[in-house]
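Practice set, problem 2.
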Amino acid sequence: MRRLGVMVAAAVAAAAASVALVVGFASSAGASGGGASNDMWQIGLSYNCTNPTPGACDFFGGTGGAHGSIEYFRSADGTQTWGDGQVTFGFHTVGGAGAGATHGTLDITSWTIARGSAGPQTFFSTGTETDSYRGQSQTYTFTNLDSGLSAVPGHYTASDVFGFSAPGVAVNIQVAFRPAN
């Protein structure tokens, strides 16, 4: 079983490390909730690769997909950071037969924004991840992990993240930010 955090980081960071995201700032999106006393980034992600060409889905760890959401929180004075997330991976064999799925739960105890694989404003996280696969669970601890996710609000596609697009390859990442009131 592969570690979720490593897969998310590897899937996004592998190609993005050499191609910095060049995306303008989008206006703050209406992330959930109102009147909160903390800043919040909500990130929805969907990766899919069904291209049967050998090597086409190597950035994704093989054919299949990942779908989920991650939230990063920061106290209004900036002194405390935390977050959480849920991501599900589906692995497929070429030809459509299923090969299994795993679900990961993230508990982010702290994070920072620094230059990384997603450009000058990349989330780096510390915390734990619990992966569940076929009734088995495994918990991992990660420290200062380059998430491969940008802190800049906006919509990102395979071209933005990997610098290319191809048939059967779809990446959609939506980053929304809601400042503290």
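Problem 2, part (b): a different protein.
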Amino acid sequence: MSSDHASRRLARLIGPSLIVITATEMLNSHIWAGNTAAGVYQNGCVLFVAGLAIAQNHNVWAARWPTVITLLGWGGMALGLLRMAVPDRVLDVVKRDTDRQVFEPASAVLLLGMWLTWKGYS
């Protein structure tokens, strides 16, 4: 399978996932106030494993759009590791954030998901 074909397949998986996960998290932002450190840790485990799977299977470092997928893999590993290493601190930050502070980064992730979906299906 060519690198470009693999990139498009991953974009078709990651893009819609980012859209659905981000949109539903934004709609249900109130549930994070009741989250626990154990929940943050488990979320970190999932992010780490997903990021590791992407990074191992898509290690493209070129001045082209597929590099974004590689960066998402490495970013997922880093964010997952952070949530696993210091779940209490991550939880404190989440509980302290206002809806506006959460909405802006979530909107960026939503747009990234839309862009990846477009790249994957175009």
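Answer key, part (b): Residues 3-121 form one domain. Residues 25 and 40 are 14 Å apart (CA to CA).
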